[in-house]
Structure formats: structure tokens, C-alpha cells
Input
Amino acid sequence: MSVVSGQAWLRWAAVACGTAALCALPVIAGALPVPQSPVSAAVLRARILASGHVPYQGYAESTVSLGLPILPGLRGVSMLLDGTTDQYTWYRSPAHWRAEVSTPAGENDTYQAGAVTYQWDYSNNLLTRIVGSEPVRLPRAADLLPPALGRRLLALGAGSGRISRLPSRQIAGTAAAGLQVRATDPRTTIAAVDIWADPATGLPVAVQVFARGTARPVVTSEFLQLSESRPAMSVVTPHPAPGVGVTTAGLPDVSQVLNGTGPPLPGRLAGFAQTRIHDDLTAVAAYGTGLSRFAVIPLPGEVGAQAMSTALGAGAELDEFPDGKAAVIHTPLLTVVLASSKFGGPVFLLAGPVTPAVLLRAASGLMVEPVVLP
Output
């Protein structure tokens, strides 16, 4: 049996106490009082919207709990909207940034290098240069970073909710001032958007989105590490090593695919006025304003039929009305409807943070018998 001297016990006790103190530092820091910023809600809102020029680099964690089914061909998007995403990010400006998503297989990076976007796939050792404009695209991980998410939601919520200050919080070393946008339109599924930002620069450092009737946020995005310093250009520029595959992919011309798919979309649906998403996309439109907004996209031919079949197979509810039918996927925050008319034509995809009743009413307004010219 070994005998431990009193001095050895003292040394081990000192090490143990030091380790415990280090582990407790984040808890202690979180418990310390945070100085409350005197900045008004209106001024903080303006600073957040103008923070696109603020450089930063850090590590963020985003959690989304929409409860959407995993659809074939969209597994990556489904996982993004139902799970936790960890990202390192380096941001010089809107035109030069990089976001790195950590995965079990390695990492996937998105680079914005001026007018060109690059995608780096570690598992396939492939760097893809993407050329062409993106009038419509699927969500990507960088959209969930607190600065991008906070500015987008605050801009969308303009004029559609009451803004007020929230108590300040200590987030990633920043005494962040809080701002809440509380939705006032009962047709939206969003109850409130809470944003915490650096009161001096307006850089959002944490975002929470609450759905109606829920006590916990459905979307949470927060920096765990953050420095408001400008990263070097070399960090946000891809430098493929020898042996890395490099390819160029052109984005499909969405306007050529969708335009002419169906009749012109009506000027109003379900009481909402139409807003054109992009000048080149006459067949795609958004309806509504603020947080009460949804998109309508016609899906041509076999694409629409497969989408409808897949949605129903994934558990969507079937709703039938006199002139057609609809597959309805509704979550606390997002509603998706696929509608087809008994008169034929495209399947319409409707999606947005509005109630199922709104989208079903809008879908029924699209089920119009085509006019046959003599």
C-alpha cells in the first residue's frame, strides 16, 4: 500500500481546486451582473440593420426545431431545419466571408469571394466554383449565423410588430443589448423575434424565434466565441491544395424552368397583395408583408407530381376542396402546402410563417379553370 505524504496531498488539492476554478469561470461570468445599455429600441434596431459592414470572426451554434419530414433529395436542408449546426465563421464584408460547418466526416465550407461563391466538400475532396445569379435558392448553413439571421428577420419584421428593449445579456464576451419584435398580425405563426446585439456596432450575437403557443424558442442561434476583428483576406479566399478536385458549376436558369409553367399569378391571394421576388421570375411571387408573408412557386409536370406524392408519403395531411386538393405540412413556425387543381396545370408550392388556414385559402384561389379561347 502506498503512502501519500501530506505535502503531496496539498499539491493534488491545489491542482484540483485550480481545475475546478477554471471550469467554473464561464458559470461565474454568466452569473455576474451585465451593465444595461441605455440605447433605445429604435436606435438599436437601426444599428442592427446597418451592421452589415462590421467585420467579425467566431464560433456559433444554431438549433432549429421545425419538425419537418425528411424529403428525398432534400435531406441536407431537412437536417439544417431540424437539428443543431456548429459553424466557424470569418467575415470581412458582405462580399468576402467564409462559413465552415463541422460534420462527423470533416467540414463543409462556403466562401463568398466577390461575385463568386465556392463550396468546399472535405469528404469528397472537392472545391466547386458556382457561377451565375441566385434569384431563388435553398437555405444554407450561413443563413443561420446570428448576424445574417438577425438582420434578415428584423428587416422582414419592419412595420409588422411592436419593438421593445430586452434586458442585456453577456454573450461570447459581449454585453449585448436585447431587442424584441413582437408580431401583431394573428395570421403569422411567429410570436416574437428576440435579438441581442453589440450596442455600439449593432452586430447581432444571438437570435431567438418563438412560435405562437410555445414557451421555448423554435430557432436559436448564438455565438459561443466572438471577436469583432477583420480576418485576413487569405482566410476568406479558397486555396485548394495539390490533388484537390476543382470544378465549376453553373446555376440553372430558374426563370427558364418556371416561367411559363402556369398562368400568371393573381395580384391578390387570401387577402394579401403580391410582391415580385425577382424581375426575371414572373412565375414566382411573394404575398403579404412583414412577418406575415408566404411564397408561391409553380412546379412543372413530373416535378410537381413527385413533390405531391413525396409530401403525402412523408406524412402530410390531405385537404380537399371543390376545385382541387392540397398536401399540408404544418409546424409551429412554418407551413408548407402543395396544391393541385382538378383542371390540370402545375402543382403549386406555397410556404411561409403563416397559419395553414391562410395557405389553404390562398391555394384555393389558385385553382382556377383555364380559359379556352375559341
User: Anything to note?
Assistant: DSSP finds seven helices and 20 strands in the chain.
